[in-house]
Amino acid sequence: MSNKKIASGPPSRSSTARQRIFNILKATQEPLSAKDISFLAHVSEKDVHIHIDHLRRSAKSGTYRLEMVAAHCLACGFEFAKRERATSPGRCPLCKSSRVNPPLFLLNYL
């Protein structure tokens, strides 16, 4: 995780996990991985993927767009550009390496 300027205190009891994830993405200008979001929002990484998918669907009717920076293979550089799922791929289809950088998420306003 890089140097982020986001306070990582205990989660607010008045906000839901999805609201915390949205606020974290809104507060940062750089793409974050699900692991980074999980740490900052105090939510399991598995749940982050579920919330990210929902935020992406609800963004279609809102004033923001949740963009995903595609995962890529560290061994051969293959980019998973057509992949729609928020989860990280298990291995590269070209070189079969399991060294894959996960997708990153960024919130942009229209």
Topology (SSEs and partners):
Layout: H1 17-27, E1 32-33, H2 34-41, H3 45-59, E2 64-69, E3 72-73, E4 100-101, E5 104-109
Antiparallel strand pairs: 1-5, 2-5, 3-4
Give a brief rundown of this model.
This protein is α+β, with helices and mostly antiparallel strands and 110 residues long. The protein has three helices and five strands.
The class by helix and strand makeup works out as alpha+beta
Strand order of the largest sheet: 1-5-2
Order of H and E elements: HEHHEEEE
Biggest β-sheet description: 3 strands, antiparallel
Alpha carbon gap, first and last residue? 27 Å
User: How many distinct beta strands?
Assistant: 5
In DSSP terms, counting alpha (H) and pi (I) runs of 4 or more, how many helices? 3
What does the overall shape look like?
A: globular
Would you tell me the overall average pLDDT?
88
Cα gyration radius (Å): 14 Å
Helix content: 25-40%
